[in-house]
Design goal:
The chain is α+β, with helices and mostly antiparallel strands and 180 residues long. 19% of the residues lie in helices and 33% in strands. It has three helices and seven strands; from the N terminus they run E-E-H-E-E-E-E-E-H-H. The strands form two sheets. The protein has a five-stranded mixed β-sheet with strand order 2-3-4-5-6, with helices on one face. It has a two-stranded antiparallel sheet with strand order 1-7. Strand 4 and strand 5 form a beta hairpin. It is flat.
């Protein structure tokens, strides 16, 4: 997980988890939303809500399951006009202490099989808390469209007649290619 403090940080002590788990709801206030917008290069974040359940996992680990919902405004990469987008994504993470026997270190001679649709490997649990807010922010960040574009707007194309002239080496290579 990210080591910088999240604007929506919400540490949960794993030592005090109820037997049925601990529900956590994080609803970002105006300052938190402004910090999220700045951290993720957004025009604004109008809404950020994470609903998660933190539960004991196999005795020594912690499972965090839930969802993050947000409404954001981004700038179109072509026109720079504001666009609104909604984020509605699932949070599923497992944490284990570094010394847990449930961590299986792969044998370097073994073939590594990864199922892209399978569950993620457990993360290392540092200390006795899990920052579910930072985890929700990571899921939020992954869900943001890195190249937002307004409907109907095509990407910019540079026409050949307006392009810069070729350098001399490129001209010679192009002439050789034409001869082949």
């Amino acid at each position: 997980m990210n080591t910088t403090k999240s604007p929506v940080s919400f540490p949960v002590s794993i030592n005090r988890l109820p037997s049925k788990g601990m529900p956590v709801r994080i609803e970002a206030d105006a300052d938190m939303r402004a910090a999220l917008a700045e951290a993720h290069d957004l025009v604004s974040v109008e809404r950020f809500v994470a609903d998660v359940m933190v539960t004991d996992w196999k005795g020594s680990g912690v499972a965090v399951n839930g969802k993050v919902e947000a409404k954001i405004t981004q700038a179109c990469i072509v026109t720079l006009e504001p666009l609104t987008a909604r984020i509605d994504d699932v949070i599923e993470a497992t944490f284990l202490p570094r010394n847990s026997k449930l961590h299986r270190l792969p044998d370097p001679s073994d073939e590594l099989m990864i199922d892209p649709d399978g569950p993620d490997a457990p993360e290392i649990l540092e200390g006795d808390t899990v920052d579910v807010g930072a985890l929700a922010e990571e899921i939020f960040a992954i869900a943001i469209d890195p190249y937002p574009r307004k409907d109907g707007v095509e990407p910019l194309n540079i026409r050949e007649d307006t392009a810069a002239p070729m350098n001399p080496l490129a001209e010679k290579l192009a002439a050789l290619k034409d001869k082949l």
